[in-house]
């Protein structure tokens, strides 16, 4: 016949066993989660091809035909777009390697001004070569600064002449964009002012209810 002490010991043992079981299950769950985290995520389907990187010739230069010829030889495809002035590359890295080669390795260096397209729309990201043997990349204002610095540092008369022509071209582009931006801002301001003038004045409480005594 068990004594009260025996019953207490049984209950304490049972509680300890339950606690140990809970701890074991918790540890098992943590280990399973850790294993899941280590496993690579399985693809549900075939991988989508990486989007191509496209650049559009802003104004094809006298070297454009040679550039297109090299592009066709390397990638076995034609320029795109209605004007056939868009070059699409497998990646950004491929595009920059191609333009770097055109600007620095060809003799004489090829001249071009290309604008990047994102989702078919032009953005302020350009690659520029004025035939000086250097490639410039960035927004138009960034390129404007880069060309000016290159001109300051260049001693070769022929390269200086190329850089001066390149600087003139970029300066014209930047000025045209700033003028267009100012005009759009002025037009927007004029439209806003016209709306204000056309809006009838709202009656005040005094006008609605008569003059106060």
Automatic annotation (TrEMBL):
Residues 33-62 have a biased composition (Basic and acidic residues). It comes from the Bacteria. Residues 19-62, 182-213 are annotated as: Disordered. This is Substrate of the Dot/Icm secretion system. It comes from Legionella feeleii.
